[in-house]
Specification:
alpha/beta, two-stranded antiparallel ribbon, 311 residues, five-stranded mixed sheet, elongated, 9 strands
Length: 311
C-alpha cells in the first residue's frame, strides 16, 4: 500500500470524518450517520466456496475501512455496512474490485447464517437446509465509497457496464449493472456539506494543480487558520507539499505556515543567487530591504557561502 493510501486509511478511519464523508456524499449533507454510533468491523472479507473437485477454495480480500452504521430516518432504525476504498491512482477495473468486495461480504453473511442455524440445531425445510439461509433471514446492506485522491482526471469506468465493449442495447438491458459510489474532489461543487476539516482537505486536493487557486483558498477560508495537525499532515501527503505542522499544539495556522514557507523559498532563491554569483550582496540586500551587513549575517546563518568577489 502506497503512502497516500496508508495515510487515507488512517485519516478516514476516524469516526467523525467517516460519518462526515457518509453524510456529505450519501445524504446530501443531512446528518444521518452519527460518529458515536459507528462500530469498527473486520476488513478481511473471507468466503469459502467449493470448486468442481469439492476441495475448499479460500478467497480472501482486505478492504481499507469497514464500519457498521446505524441509520435513523422517519422514526425507523436501519443497520448497514459502509466500506471505504482509497485510490491514489486511477483503477480501470474498480467496479469489479468493489463488486467482489461486496459480494464476498454478502456471501460471508449467508455462511454466518448457515453456521448459526447449524449450531442452534434449528428445524428447517429442505430448501432452507440446502441453501443454509432460512426464509426469514435477512442480509445487512453494504455500501462502498471509493475515494479518489489523485490529481489526474478519473477516466476509468464508473460502473460495470462501462467495462463492456459496445453491444446491442437489447443485450445491455439484460445485464445486471454494478454502479460505484465514487468520491472525486475535482467533481465536488459544494464543500459546505462537510462538517469536519475533511471538507477543507478535499477542497485543497481539488485545486492542488493550481498553486494560485490553492493560495486563494487558504487565504479566504478561516478554517485553515485553525487546522488540526492530522489534516495538515494528510494534505502534505495527498498533494505533495511540506507545510510545517505545529509541534507545540494540536492545530496549525496553515495561512501563516503557507506564507512562512513562501518566504523561506524566496530567501533561499536570493541566497542561492548570491552564492552562485548571479548577482552580489548589494543587490541581494536590496531585494530583502535590509543592509548589506545584515544580509551577509543572515546568509551565513542560513548556511550559505558568500563569494569573495561580491559586486
Amino acid at each position: 500500500m502506497g503512502a497516500k493510501d496508508t495515510k487515507a486509511k488512517e485519516y478516514l478511519s476516524d469516526n467523525g470524518r467517516f460519518a462526515d464523508l457518509c453524510n456529505a456524499v450519501l445524504f446530501d449533507g443531512e446528518q444521518i450517520v452519527r460518529a458515536e454510533e459507528l462500530q469498527e468491523r473486520d476488513t478481511t472479507e473471507v468466503l469459502s466456496v467449493f470448486g468442481i473437485d469439492e476441495k475448499e477454495i479460500q478467497f480472501q480480500k482486505w478492504r481499507d475501512i469497514l464500519k457498521h452504521v446505524v441509520i435513523k430516518s422517519y422514526g425507523d432504525v436501519y443497520f448497514m455496512l459502509v466500506g471505504i476504498e482509497n485510490q491514489s491512482e486511477i483503477h480501470y477495473a474498480m467496479p469489479v474490485k468493489v463488486m467482489i468486495y461486496d459480494a464476498l461480504n454478502y456471501g460471508a453473511q449467508v455462511k454466518e447464517a448457515e453456521r448459526r442455524h447449524r449450531n442452534e440445531n434449528e428445524s428447517c425445510t429442505r430448501a432452507e437446509f440446502l441453501s443454509g439461509f432460512h426464509a426469514d433471514d435477512k442480509l445487512t446492506p453494504i455500501i462502498t465509497l471509493t475515494v479518489y485522491l489523485g490529481a489526474e482526471q478519473w477516466d476509468a469506468p464508473r460502473c460495470l457496464c462501462d467495462m463492456f465493449r459496445k453491444i446491442d442495447d437489447r443485450i445491455t438491458s439484460l445485464i445486471s449493472d454494478y454502479k460505484m459510489h465514487l468520491v472525486i474532489p475535482q467533481e465536488i461543487d459544494n464543500f459546505d456539506k462537510f462538517r469536519t476539516t475533511l471538507g477543507e482537505v478535499l477542497a485543497i486536493i481539488k485545486v492542488s494543480e493550481d498553486r494560485e487557486a490553492m493560495k486563494q483558498l487558504i487565504a479566504t477560508n478561516p478554517q485553515f487558520a485553525v487546522m488540526d495537525n492530522e489534516s495538515v499532515s494528510a494534505i502534505n501527503t495527498f498533494i505533495g507539499v511540506d507545510i510545517p505542522v505545529n509541534k507545540e499544539g494540536s492545530v496549525t495556522n496553515m495561512c501563516k505556515a503557507w506564507e512562512d514557507q513562501k518566504e523561506e523559498g524566496r530567501l533561499f532563491e536570493v541566497y542561492s543567487s548570491v552564492q552562485d554569483g548571479d548577482y552580489g550582496v548589494k543587490r541581494g540586500a536590496e531585494k530583502l530591504g535590509i543592509s548589506e551587513e545584515e544580509f551577509e549575517k543572515r546568509m551565513l546563518e542560513a548556511g550559505f557561502r558568500i563569494p569573495v568577489a561580491s559586486d
